[in-house]
């Protein structure tokens, strides 16, 4: 009898795990569950709303998921140790479960579980807000807002120069990007100096934003009070976790607790896995993807063939912070990135600006989106 594998989530990791498990040619019955029939190329997300251009940013799952995998468009109402309850389909039992539901990305980025199939209306509404706003305030100078500011700078360069439109970024650190061990100081400094020296985006650094209780568009940053028309928050990320009946399932930040094998800590059977932004790996992104999904695919196979499989037979992934290869788009015409930092010398090898522009900034990677979804 075929082993039943259920994958929840129609994003990168859900698609990759399902496709790679199918490619093992083992006797698996694989079902992928998603509330939306589309996959969202999140790498391009900050440009989608600013330009209201969804071209090559959303793809039907049927074009990405390999033939032989059942796609179920439904909503998970409850996860259990051996089954999931779906809103329309009812109970779906499994031998192994992979949770790859990602994160709840704040506006204007959004996420498929939020807008379902109505993505065009969602992005059109966000675009309208951006177009009509005279003063946009970005709270948090992390990765997403660093790229969003570049898109706003590109589209409204003349208005920003004239002062008819304003963009203000408030960040609690003196340098942009998270201070979490993944981004070298050299990269953070370059991103910060780009906005300080080459744009009319106003930076307020080293200060936390306080939002007025009376008016959510009134922001206090130190001694400065700002009246905004539109406020976008990008402080951390919230995991998108379907309802469940598991005890101690998440950590203090709300992410699913997983072992280095990606097995959910709260499930003793070891047959429930979580991968991607929903799991409590500190790094959120795709650079480490191949090692991650390879580990999950290997470990699912081992657990299905031997439920008592010892830990030393399972693949593990290192979750220690390091300066991971990264490119930060600063609009379509600028970008900067880091390759790696040489240990002991503490020297960060930076990527050339022309390479960053060509590889990412020019079209936000959309030219290889479909290939990336299908192949990883």
TrEMBL record:
GO terms for molecular function: electron-transferring-flavoprotein dehydrogenase activity; flavin adenine dinucleotide binding. It comes from the Eukaryota. Residues 4-284 form the FAD/NAD(P)-binding domain. GO terms for cellular component: cytoplasm. Coiled coil: none annotated. Keywords: FAD, Flavoprotein, Oxidoreductase. InterPro entries: FAD/NAD-bd_sf, FAD/NAD-binding_dom. Pfam families: Pyr_redox_2. Belongs to the FAD-dependent oxidoreductase family. This is Apoptosis-inducing factor 1. It comes from Cyberlindnera fabianii (Yeast).
